[in-house]
Amino acid sequence: MVPLSVLDLVPIGSGSTATAALEHSTALIQRVEQLGFRRYWVAEHHGMPGIGSSSPAVLIAHLAASSSRIRVGSGGVMLPNHQPLVVAEQFGTLEALHPGRIDLGIGRAPGTDPRTAAALRRGTDPLGADDFPEQLTELVAYFHGDGPVLAVPAVGHQPDLWLLGSSGYSAQVAGLLGLPFAFAHHFSGQNTMAALGLYRETFRPSGVLAEPYSMIGAAVLVADTDAEARRLALPGALQFLRLRQGKPGLVPTPEEAAAHPYSDEERAFVEERLAGQVIGAPDTVRDGVRELVERTGVAELMVVTSTHGGADRLRSYELLAAAVTPARI
Question: How far is CA 311 from CA 54, 228, 232, 274, in A?
Answer without folding.
Answer: 22, 14, 11, 21
